[in-house]
Amino acid sequence: MKTTTIAGITTAALMLAFGLFALARGSNRTVDDRSTRSTTHPTPIPTPTMTDSAKTDSAKTETAILAGGCFWGMEEIIRKIPGVVSTTVGYTGGAVKNPSYEQICTGGTGHAEGLQVVFDPSRLTYEQLLGYFFRMHDPTTLNRQHNDVGTQYRSAIFYQDDAQKQTAEKVKAQVDKSGRFKRPMVTEITPASEFYPGEAYHQKYLVKNPGGYNCHILRD
């Protein structure tokens, strides 16, 4: 390399200085860019839910199947109860296999719009769950909830075993004696049969459609 002198500084020295300066800027840009990405696009942090701890041990969960009118509103209330692990809306108590929503709506299949509830009994007992159930719908209207009319909207508890049956009968009798309702209760207590999950668009319908049709409220 031919070396010249500019103001007492050799060209070799100038090139070395510029090279070191460029290297330093490249290193700083890498750090700055990484810092900017971290600030602008932070790594998502999962939000814990009330059901996470229950999901870790499925052997300790129980299942309940309930019907009390349109399953959209039922699910919206029950899925938020502490101790509930999962909810699935669907059809149960009828004679037709794998019924569709359109078939259910005719009232000719015998199915009820139901809710399958998986819950952690160490956090929510079956008796407590039924307490919520009787607070969220009218168990005195036969085959009807508000404007929804038909056998598919009946009030029913589909028990899984004798223990659930006895608890259901106990809670129903307590509510009936409480005087909360002025008319006789018509809630069916019947053995659980095949539960058919409803179509995907029905699952958590009111989460997907805020402000959608809902005739259920949790009464004191």
Please provide a written account of the structure:
This protein is α+β, with helices and mostly antiparallel strands. The protein has two domains: 5-40; 52-208, Peptide Methionine Sulfoxide Reductase, Chain A. It is 36% helix and 20% strand. It has seven helices and ten strands. It has a six-stranded mixed sheet with strand order 9-8-3-5-4-10. Strands 1-2 form a two-stranded antiparallel sheet. A hairpin with a 2-residue loop joins strand 1 (5-6) and strand 2 (9-10). Helix 5 crosses helix 6 (162-178). The chain is globular, with a radius of gyration of 31 Å.
Provide tags for this entry.
alpha+beta; two-stranded antiparallel ribbon; Peptide Methionine Sulfoxide Reductase, Chain A; 7 helices; six-stranded mixed sheet; 220 residues; disordered N terminus; single chain; 10 strands; 2 domains
In short:
The protein has 220 residues and is of the alpha+beta class. It has helices at 11-40, 52-55, 71-78, 101-105, 126-136, 162-178, 205-208, and strands at residues 5-6, 9-10, 62-68, 84-92, 112-119, 144-145, 148-149, 155-159, 188-191, 195-197.
Q: Could you tell me the radius of gyration in angstroms?
A: 31 Å
Taking strands numbered 1, 2, ... along the chain, how are they ordered across the largest sheet?
9-8-3-5-4-10
Name of the CATH class of the largest domain? Alpha Beta
CATH hierarchy: architecture of the largest domain = 2-Layer Sandwich
Percent range for helical residues?
A: 25-40%
Structural class: alpha+beta
The count of domains is 2
Count of helical segments? 7
At the third CATH level, what is the topology name of the largest domain?
A: Peptide Methionine Sulfoxide Reductase, Chain A
Total strand count, please? 10
Approximately what portion of the residues adopt beta-strand conformation? 15-25%
For this structure, what is the CATH homologous superfamily of the largest domain? Answer: Peptide methionine sulphoxide reductase MsrA
- The global form is globular
Mean pLDDT: 81
